[in-house]
Amino acid sequence: MTMDSQYSWPRFFMELADKLLAFKDDRQALIATLQHVYAELGMDLPTLDSGGIPTDIDPFTVYGLFNRGLTDNKRRAVALGIGGALGVQAPLHDDFVGVPVLLNINATFYDQVRRDDGDIDRLWDLFAVALAYADQPTEQTEAVFRHAYDSVLQQRHASWNITIGLFWIRPYAYVNLSSRDRWFLALPDRMPSSVRSVLASLKKVPESTEYLGIRDSILSVLKSRTYEYFSFPELSAYAWRVSEQVNRENKEADKDKEEVAQAAALGDADVETVRYWLYAPGRGACMWDEFYSRGIMGLAWGEIGDLTAYAHKEDLKAQMLQTYPENGTQKNDIHALWQFANEMKPGDVVFVKKGRSEILGRGIVAGDYVYDPEGGHYPNCREVRWTSAGNWPIDERLAMKTLTEITDYPELLSRIETFFEDSDDDVESEEPLVIFPEYSARQFLNEVYMPEERYDAIVGLLRVKKNIIMQGAPGVGKTYAAKRLAYSMMGVKEASRVMLVQFHQSYSYEDFIEGYRPSGAGFELVKGAFYSFCKKAADDEENAYFFIIDEINRGNLSKIFGELFMLIESDKRGPKNKLQLLYSRELFYVPRNVHIIGMMNTADRSLAMLDYALRRRFAFVELSPAFDSEGFRAYRVGLVNPRFEALVREVESLNRAIAEDESLGEGFCIGHSYFCNMEADSCTNATLASIVDYELIPMLKEYWFDEPGKVREWSDRLRRSLR
User: Fold this and answer.
1) Maximal CA-CA distance, the chain
2) What tens digit of pLDDT does each residue of 33-64 get?
3) Of 105, 323, 445, 554, which shows the fewest CB atoms inside 10 Å?
4) Residues paired with residue 279 on neighbouring β-strands, in sequence order
């Protein structure tokens, strides 16, 4: 058999296989040798057994020790260390091009968690007969090889790695059918159509007869010297080079066109954002290797069928409880399945975890939810473009759940993302490109119904003061205006730079800044919404961030803000004004690029007066009903509805009566937002009657609870306007 002179690795790999064969019946000696090699190298022996130090090992896994996600220098050091200890004489240069690698995790050829008796024995048997068949190909050695190959194929964790292992030990006799090589071989002009059609039809690892048939067909093509590669090592090297070029081109293309489709948390359908997820690929991450190679992520619970069949989460819950009654409430599982099918979107970022303290990889969701009834134990799938793979311990107790959204945990996100800035795998981390819709001051004015000079004044106040409170009567659109004020100042609808919270009587410093919360181990310090938002803003000083507080006067503001009472002032912003937080003792500051927009309902009778010291830290902006604004008048004309016009005129009369009432005043006037966002075909008499009967009249009963005659008068007038 002719060997390629440009590669040194095949000779080394083949001689190593010969040396390993001597340990078939003395695996403890092999394990001891490996421990010694790693100790000499000053490295830790990778985890090969769920119990720690391996109790047994197969020869293919030995190759996996230096054919995994390592730099070439580390690969060579480990390979030469093992080879030297076993007496290998062949040289090994830095020429790993085309040598397939396994993932750092689950780089064993057996299932670390659920290994059956005989799994490793069968791997040794395959190893031995594969060497014999490659060196002396007879009908007898072929028959023995077929039996051993098919036996291993039935084991857990058996996948395409079988073909990789065979290629390692005899690279000129066995073809590598890893995902990279299968992709390459199926390309036009890389193999004859007869070979490509067979490879394209492969849905699973072929049994021995089919595998040898594929091998022989490809080998015949290589011997014909029709293509640029004349042996399996040359073929694998060529596939690697081409795939790397394609990957680079795809990355550049993705940066120009990738858009995520994600509805904003603030309720704007056209607001683009990326959500971040922690994901466990099976128990003990047992499916990571397979999912990575297939470019997917999967969830189990296949017996409940296609998740899109459940219109509501409660329907899914009912089916889960019926199908798996022995599993308790299954709250976390139900939530994970619902999010996986309905909330996760293409463009979202997925971090793969093992257990509660280890990150294994990173990817970008590339497809919608798919139910594959032929997908075995994991039929619920999404396509993922995996960007990184490795092994990164994290000093953080990660959630135990299969799928957890971590979008709103910037500290955790920041710690995880640092793993992918410079990984040993030499795989570039890649952020999805999000194209945010532009949003201008003109768009704000068209949507909010506010005079331009009023808008300019509010923007000026917010830029200088940093903190404003929008106050007004019910229905003047305070929340709507606050969100769009933020978007207009940013110039784009970027939801990740806007956070909305609502204060209430029980809202506390612990919710807002930090505090201790019960956990499985007792209590743990949890960061609050404003703390996390400020940390996120501090890392992006060039962009403005907006923290919106609805019902700001319903909370005990002095207690909620605590020591930040002073730091929110515009001249107390920035790192020069750090103060020590109550629980963590951390020195903290409010970034200059954070703007606070509070909202108050002036008609709320139950509210306490705002603390004067806090009041002076905010500028107050009054929002009034905008029935007479240019924008709303144009909106009224566009509806072409006489009943709508009549009702609005009656509400304007009602507002004059409310403003003149000494017990009420302008702060109790009815806002225009009750009548917004209607189209000509939806502005029906029934819709308008519903607004009158179920929103306006109940409000009048509260206003004039001691004057039922006024309530009856105005109720009749509002209803008559619709006749």
Assistant:
1) 107
2) 999 999 999 888 887 876 567 889 999 999 99
3) 323
4) 352, 403
Q: To the nearest whole number, what is the mean pLDDT of the chain?
A: 84
Structural domain for 524, as ranges: 441-623
Residue 565 shares a structural domain with residue 660: no
Query: Residue 530 region, left (φ>0) first, then alpha (ψ -120 to 50), else beta?
Result: alpha
Beta bridge partners of 139: none
Q: Is residue 654 domain-shared with residue 548, that is, in the same domain?
A: no
Residues 613, 665, single domain; the answer is no
At 626-676, the pLDDT tens digits run 888 888 888 888 888 899 999 999 999 999 999 898 888 888 888 888 888
What's the pLDDT band for 614 if we cut at 50, 70, 90? Answer: low
Using only C-alpha atoms, what is the Rg of the chain?
Answer: 33
pLDDT single digits (tens) 310-360: 888 888 888 888 887 766 667 888 989 999 999 898 888 999 999 888 999
Same domain? For 599 and 693 the reply is: no
Q: Are 148 and 134 spatial neighbours (Cβ–Cβ below 8 Å)?
A: no
Give domain status of residue 502, yes or no: yes
Q: Return d(Cα 58, Cα 648) in angstroms, integer.
A: 82
Number of structural domains (the chain) is 4
Q: Are residues 608 and 662 in the same domain?
A: no
3-state helix, strand, coil in the chain (%, to 5): 50, 15, 40
Against a cut of 0.85, is the pTM above it? no
Burial annotation 461-479 (CB, 10 A radius, 16+ → b, else e): bbeeebbbbbbbbbbbbbb
Instruction: Give the span between the Cα atoms of 227 and 223, in whole angstroms.
Output: 9
> Is the same domain home to 408 and 308?
yes
Q: CB under 8 Å to 401, separation ≥6 — which residues? A: 278, 280, 332, 335, 336
CA distance 413 to 274: 12
